[in-house]
Write a structure and sequence with these properties.
The chain has one domain: Vaccinia Virus protein VP39 (Rossmann fold, 3-Layer(aba) Sandwich), CATH 3.40.50.150. The protein is 20% helix and 33% strand. The chain has a seven-stranded mixed β-sheet with strand order 5-4-3-6-7-8-9. It has a two-stranded antiparallel sheet with strand order 1-2. The longest helix has 13 residues. It is globular. It starts with 23 loop residues before the first strand and ends in a 10-residue tail after the last strand.
Length: 183
Protein backbone atom coordinates (compact mmCIF):
# COMPACT_ATOMS: atom_id res chain seq x y z
CA UNK A 1 0.00 0.00 0.00
CA UNK A 2 2.94 2.31 0.54
CA UNK A 3 3.74 2.12 -3.19
CA UNK A 4 0.32 3.42 -4.26
CA UNK A 5 -0.09 7.23 -4.12
CA UNK A 6 -3.60 7.34 -2.58
CA UNK A 7 -3.79 11.12 -2.94
CA UNK A 8 -4.01 10.68 -6.73
CA UNK A 9 -7.14 8.53 -6.36
CA UNK A 10 -9.22 11.19 -4.59
CA UNK A 11 -10.44 14.60 -5.82
CA UNK A 12 -7.75 17.30 -5.64
CA UNK A 13 -9.59 19.20 -2.91
CA UNK A 14 -9.34 16.10 -0.65
CA UNK A 15 -5.69 15.25 -1.36
CA UNK A 16 -4.65 16.56 2.07
CA UNK A 17 -7.02 13.98 3.67
CA UNK A 18 -6.06 11.03 1.44
CA UNK A 19 -3.95 9.28 4.06
CA UNK A 20 -6.43 9.54 6.91
CA UNK A 21 -8.05 6.25 7.86
CA UNK A 22 -11.49 7.18 6.61
CA UNK A 23 -13.55 6.78 3.44
CA UNK A 24 -13.69 9.82 1.16
CA UNK A 25 -16.11 10.87 -1.58
CA UNK A 26 -14.86 10.37 -5.15
CA UNK A 27 -17.87 11.71 -7.04
CA UNK A 28 -21.00 10.13 -8.49
CA UNK A 29 -22.22 9.36 -4.95
CA UNK A 30 -19.35 6.88 -4.46
CA UNK A 31 -16.47 6.64 -1.98
CA UNK A 32 -12.92 5.35 -1.75
CA UNK A 33 -12.74 2.88 1.15
CA UNK A 34 -10.73 3.72 4.22
CA UNK A 35 -7.16 2.33 4.06
CA UNK A 36 -7.85 -0.11 6.92
CA UNK A 37 -10.67 -1.78 4.96
CA UNK A 38 -8.60 -1.90 1.75
CA UNK A 39 -5.76 -3.57 3.67
CA UNK A 40 -8.12 -5.91 5.55
CA UNK A 41 -9.97 -7.09 2.43
CA UNK A 42 -6.70 -7.53 0.54
CA UNK A 43 -5.10 -9.54 3.35
CA UNK A 44 -8.16 -11.80 3.77
CA UNK A 45 -7.79 -12.82 0.11
CA UNK A 46 -4.13 -13.78 0.66
CA UNK A 47 -3.16 -12.62 -2.84
CA UNK A 48 -0.28 -14.41 -4.55
CA UNK A 49 2.04 -13.26 -7.33
CA UNK A 50 0.43 -15.57 -9.92
CA UNK A 51 -3.21 -14.68 -9.09
CA UNK A 52 -5.79 -13.38 -11.53
CA UNK A 53 -8.25 -11.24 -9.57
CA UNK A 54 -11.69 -9.89 -10.42
CA UNK A 55 -12.72 -6.67 -8.70
CA UNK A 56 -16.31 -5.48 -8.78
CA UNK A 57 -16.64 -1.76 -8.09
CA UNK A 58 -13.54 -0.07 -9.54
CA UNK A 59 -14.39 3.34 -8.10
CA UNK A 60 -11.29 5.51 -8.34
CA UNK A 61 -9.07 2.50 -9.08
CA UNK A 62 -7.25 2.53 -5.75
CA UNK A 63 -8.04 -1.06 -4.69
CA UNK A 64 -7.10 -2.28 -8.18
CA UNK A 65 -3.75 -0.47 -7.93
CA UNK A 66 -3.03 -2.02 -4.52
CA UNK A 67 -3.79 -5.47 -5.89
CA UNK A 68 -1.78 -4.81 -9.06
CA UNK A 69 1.31 -4.29 -6.91
CA UNK A 70 0.94 -7.88 -5.66
CA UNK A 71 -0.70 -10.07 -8.30
CA UNK A 72 -0.30 -10.99 -11.96
CA UNK A 73 -3.52 -9.44 -13.27
CA UNK A 74 -6.57 -7.50 -12.13
CA UNK A 75 -9.83 -7.31 -14.07
CA UNK A 76 -12.09 -4.63 -12.65
CA UNK A 77 -15.69 -3.73 -13.48
CA UNK A 78 -17.35 -0.37 -12.72
CA UNK A 79 -20.99 0.42 -13.48
CA UNK A 80 -20.50 4.21 -13.60
CA UNK A 81 -18.96 5.08 -16.97
CA UNK A 82 -17.31 8.29 -15.73
CA UNK A 83 -15.54 6.51 -12.88
CA UNK A 84 -14.46 3.64 -15.13
CA UNK A 85 -12.93 6.10 -17.61
CA UNK A 86 -11.16 8.13 -14.90
CA UNK A 87 -9.78 5.00 -13.22
CA UNK A 88 -8.58 3.54 -16.51
CA UNK A 89 -6.75 6.76 -17.41
CA UNK A 90 -5.13 7.10 -13.98
CA UNK A 91 -4.07 3.44 -13.79
CA UNK A 92 -2.53 3.71 -17.26
CA UNK A 93 -0.78 6.98 -16.34
CA UNK A 94 0.69 5.31 -13.24
CA UNK A 95 1.97 2.40 -15.34
CA UNK A 96 -0.35 -0.37 -14.19
CA UNK A 97 -0.21 -2.50 -17.32
CA UNK A 98 -1.66 -5.49 -15.48
CA UNK A 99 -5.07 -3.90 -14.78
CA UNK A 100 -7.99 -4.02 -17.21
CA UNK A 101 -11.05 -1.81 -16.60
CA UNK A 102 -14.51 -2.52 -17.99
CA UNK A 103 -17.58 -0.34 -17.73
CA UNK A 104 -20.61 -2.50 -16.99
CA UNK A 105 -22.88 -4.27 -14.54
CA UNK A 106 -20.64 -6.08 -12.04
CA UNK A 107 -23.40 -8.53 -11.11
CA UNK A 108 -22.37 -10.54 -14.17
CA UNK A 109 -18.64 -10.38 -13.39
CA UNK A 110 -16.32 -10.59 -16.40
CA UNK A 111 -16.95 -14.05 -17.78
CA UNK A 112 -14.50 -13.77 -20.69
CA UNK A 113 -11.52 -13.91 -18.30
CA UNK A 114 -12.94 -16.39 -15.76
CA UNK A 115 -12.18 -18.35 -13.72
CA UNK A 116 -10.54 -16.12 -11.12
CA UNK A 117 -8.26 -17.07 -8.24
CA UNK A 118 -9.79 -14.34 -6.10
CA UNK A 119 -12.71 -11.92 -6.31
CA UNK A 120 -13.11 -8.70 -4.34
CA UNK A 121 -16.35 -6.73 -4.29
CA UNK A 122 -16.34 -3.13 -3.05
CA UNK A 123 -20.07 -2.37 -3.04
CA UNK A 124 -22.75 -4.16 -1.03
CA UNK A 125 -25.38 -6.30 -2.74
CA UNK A 126 -28.26 -7.69 -0.67
CA UNK A 127 -27.21 -11.21 -1.72
CA UNK A 128 -24.06 -12.70 -3.26
CA UNK A 129 -24.41 -12.62 -7.07
CA UNK A 130 -24.45 -16.19 -8.39
CA UNK A 131 -22.37 -15.35 -11.52
CA UNK A 132 -19.49 -14.24 -9.27
CA UNK A 133 -19.52 -17.53 -7.36
CA UNK A 134 -19.55 -19.38 -10.70
CA UNK A 135 -16.52 -17.41 -11.93
CA UNK A 136 -14.47 -18.27 -8.83
CA UNK A 137 -11.88 -21.03 -9.33
CA UNK A 138 -11.96 -24.20 -7.27
CA UNK A 139 -9.91 -23.32 -4.18
CA UNK A 140 -10.57 -19.63 -4.76
CA UNK A 141 -11.69 -16.90 -2.36
CA UNK A 142 -14.08 -13.98 -2.61
CA UNK A 143 -14.50 -11.14 -0.13
CA UNK A 144 -17.78 -9.26 -0.40
CA UNK A 145 -19.88 -6.91 1.76
CA UNK A 146 -23.48 -8.14 1.87
CA UNK A 147 -26.54 -6.54 3.41
CA UNK A 148 -29.20 -3.87 3.28
CA UNK A 149 -28.72 -0.63 1.35
CA UNK A 150 -27.38 1.92 3.85
CA UNK A 151 -28.17 -0.54 6.64
CA UNK A 152 -26.76 -3.63 8.30
CA UNK A 153 -23.95 -5.21 6.23
CA UNK A 154 -21.34 -7.88 6.86
CA UNK A 155 -18.08 -8.56 5.09
CA UNK A 156 -18.28 -12.21 4.02
CA UNK A 157 -15.45 -14.53 2.99
CA UNK A 158 -16.59 -17.01 0.35
CA UNK A 159 -14.43 -20.03 -0.42
CA UNK A 160 -14.95 -22.66 -3.08
CA UNK A 161 -13.70 -25.99 -1.78
CA UNK A 162 -14.35 -29.40 -3.35
CA UNK A 163 -17.28 -28.01 -5.30
CA UNK A 164 -18.91 -26.49 -2.20
CA UNK A 165 -19.33 -22.81 -1.48
CA UNK A 166 -18.43 -21.98 2.12
CA UNK A 167 -19.28 -18.62 3.69
CA UNK A 168 -17.91 -16.98 6.81
CA UNK A 169 -18.92 -13.62 8.34
CA UNK A 170 -15.79 -11.57 8.97
CA UNK A 171 -16.62 -8.01 10.02
CA UNK A 172 -19.57 -5.59 10.20
CA UNK A 173 -19.11 -2.88 7.55
CA UNK A 174 -20.86 -0.08 5.70
CA UNK A 175 -20.39 0.12 1.92
CA UNK A 176 -22.16 1.99 -0.86
CA UNK A 177 -24.97 -0.08 -2.39
CA UNK A 178 -24.29 -2.47 -5.25
CA UNK A 179 -26.03 -0.90 -8.24
CA UNK A 180 -27.35 -2.66 -11.33
CA UNK A 181 -28.13 -1.64 -14.89
CA UNK A 182 -31.82 -1.10 -15.50
CA UNK A 183 -33.19 -4.29 -17.09
Amino acid sequence: MLKVPRHLFVPDYLANQAYLDSPLPIGYGQTISQPYIVAYMTSILEPEKTDKILEIGTGSGYQAAVLAEIVDSVFTVEIIDGLAEQAQQLLKLLGYGNVWVKSGDGFHGWKEHAPYDKIIVTAAPEEIPQPLTEQLKEGGKMIIPVGEKYGYQYLILVEKKKGKVLKKNMLPVRFVPFTRDED
